[in-house]
Design brief:
Layout: H1 2-15, E1 27-29, E2 38-44, E3 48-53, E4 66-69, E5 77-78, E6 92-98, E7 101-106, E8 109-113, E9 121-122, E10 141-144, E11 147-152, E12 155-159, E13 167-168, E14 178-184, E15 187-192, E16 196-200, E17 208-209, E18 220-225, E19 230-234, E20 237-241, E21 249-251, E22 257-263, E23 266-271, E24 278-281, E25 287-290, E26 302-307, E27 311-316, E28 320-325, H2 326-335, E29 339-342, H3 355-360, H4 370-374, H5 376-381, H6 412-426, E30 435-436, H7 446-451, E31 458-459, H8 461-469
Antiparallel strand pairs: 1-28, 2-3, 3-4, 4-5, 6-7, 7-8, 8-9, 10-11, 11-12, 12-13, 14-15, 15-16, 16-17, 18-19, 19-20, 20-21, 22-23, 23-24, 24-25, 25-29, 26-27, 27-28, 30-31
Length: 477
């Protein structure tokens, strides 16, 4: 059974990588001093990109305030005039653009700018002081008409005079730790760290739990509203509501959205742990495309996202800021093969939840260490719910009635072998008939070590076919 598990692990690796991994390419946006951390993004007047920087814990890399670009990130300028020179005042978790006004929530209060971030004024009178830091920590921001709302660890606060005074607006919240806010028509929505989602229909005066369809006591740190739906990222998956939060249904499988963005007819979700993946939907969450492509993997995820008229932006943990041209995503979309997620007629998510990987990856860092691999057999046995010594597709989190995400991957181990064969051959980017490590994703490169029988550092067609035969019924594994 252990040898079967090894083959299963290879199958799982191939199945859940994006089909068009090498097609659309993200490009890094150079930040001043090669700053590695961005926590907040916003699009302001005429596609101006506003960047709120973050800092790295336990290091000398502190946040550097607000950055600005008027040309989609080709050139970056610092716009921090008026920001206090502390690491708390220059670390930003949320930025919104409201009728020409920029509002930015820092780790110590809220800043306002009316001149395209040329100057900032701190306005935090009435916001609560967080006991742990002795600062006025500001998490999420949202606006409803002329009223601006700020989510804090001590509840929701609102201002009707552009931050000159803030008042508590948290009645009904069982958990005051509000991490994100959104507004859909006249309904305010709040993500809490431990009590799920809350809504208010009276401008924040009263809040009610809105978790119908969401597991109890989830931690939610991301929420967004489009014209037609709400999306909430939790530690137990991502959820969508089409009735202003009255009911929710799972979307994106087990992907835990840490950030969202909407614009240009698209909605984008940045995953929280493991892969650092980005998923994009052109139809309000009915279907999702994995657009991760060449984004750095293995970090804690994507902190922030934004969309303007030409690009999709992703702030990757400790890996800086990246952008993907919308036209490149649209070319992926037209191929049709990249559709990895959606809601099936039965109501379940169409994206594979990769339960095998989640089971093996005990520390959930998106990588399998030597120690984790050594315990693979024991870990996979935990999926054998009926304890019959075998793993069914259902126990592995696979839906046998759903079309496989890669053409040719169905049909048991025969389908597995043919799918792996097709995938490997398709990765020969330069068409020289040899597959080298620099042509395949890092998490798959161990296959070359196993299959390279002539030890030349590359796989030819014969070696690829010999390797995939091991995955067929009766093959050596």
């Amino acid at each position: 059974m252990q040898k079967y598990f090894q083959s299963l692990l290879i199958f799982s690796t191939f199945t859940f990588l994006p089909l068009d991994f090498l097609s659309a390419q993200w490009t890094p946006i150079p930040l001043p001093n090669e700053h590695p951390e961005v926590f907040a993004l916003a699009i302001h007047n005429n596609n101006q990109l506003v960047i709120g920087t973050g800092g790295l814990p336990n290091s000398n890399t502190n946040a550097m305030g607000i950055l600005w670009s008027k040309d989609h990130g080709d050139n970056i300028a610092q716009r921090s005039n008026g920001l206090l020179n502390t690491r708390f005042d220059r670390l930003f978790r949320s930025i919104i653009s409201v009728d020409g006004l920029l509002v930015a929530g820092s780790a110590d209060g809220v800043y306002f700018s009316r001149d395209n971030a040329q100057s900032w004024e701190k306005r935090s009178d009435g916001l609560p002081v967080v006991r742990q830091t002795s600062k006025k920590s500001s998490n999420g921001l949202a606006s409803l008409g002329s009223t601006i709302f700020c989510g804090t660890p001590a509840g929701v606060f609102k201002t009707t005079d552009q931050g000159k005074t803030w008042v508590n607006s948290s009645k009904g919240l069982s958990n005051p730790d509000v991490r994100a806010l959104a507004c859909m028509e006249k309904t305010l929505v709040a993500s809490t760290d431990g009590a799920g989602i809350y809504t208010s229909t009276d401008a924040g005066n009263n809040w009610s739990a809105a978790n119908n369809g969401i597991p109890a006591n989830v931690h939610s740190r991301a929420i967004i509203a489009t014209d037609q739906a709400l999306f909430a990222g939790t530690n137990l998956g991502t959820y969508r509501s089409t009735d202003q939060g009255k009911t929710w249904s799972a979307t994106l499988g087990s992907a835990n959205a840490r950030s969202f963005a909407t614009g240009n007819g698209l909605i984008a979700a940045g995953a929280f742990r493991g892969s650092g993946s980005v998923y994009i939907s052109p139809d309000n969450g009915e279907n999702w495309f994995d657009a991760s492509a060449n984004l750095p993997r293995g970090g804690i995820g994507v902190w922030a996202m934004a969309i303007d008229d030409q690009f999709i932006y992703a702030a990757v943990n400790r890996q800086g800021l990246w952008r993907l041209a919308i036209k490149d995503f649209q070319s992926l979309q037209k191929k049709g093969a990249a559709v990895l997620a959606g809601t099936t007629p039965g109501g379940s998510s169409g994206i594979p939840d990769n339960r095998v990987m989640q089971t093996l990856d005990s520390n959930q860092d998106g990588k399998l260490s030597t120690a984790e691999l050594s315990k693979a057999s024991l870990a996979l046995k935990s999926l054998d719910k009926n304890q019959d010594g075998q793993l069914t597709q259902s126990e592995m989190g696979l839906n046998p009635t759903r079309q496989a995400p890669m053409g040719g991957m169905g049909g048991g181990r025969s389908g597995m072998a043919s799918g792996v064969l097709s995938r490997l051959k398709s990765m020969d980017a330069n068409g020289d008939g040899l597959l080298t490590k620099n042509e395949i994703p890092g998490m798959m490169q161990r296959i070359i070590d196993r299959a390279d029988t002539n030890l030349d550092g590359a796989l030819d067609s014969a070696e690829i076919e010999a390797f995939t035969k091991q995955l067929s019924p009766g093959g050596r594994n």
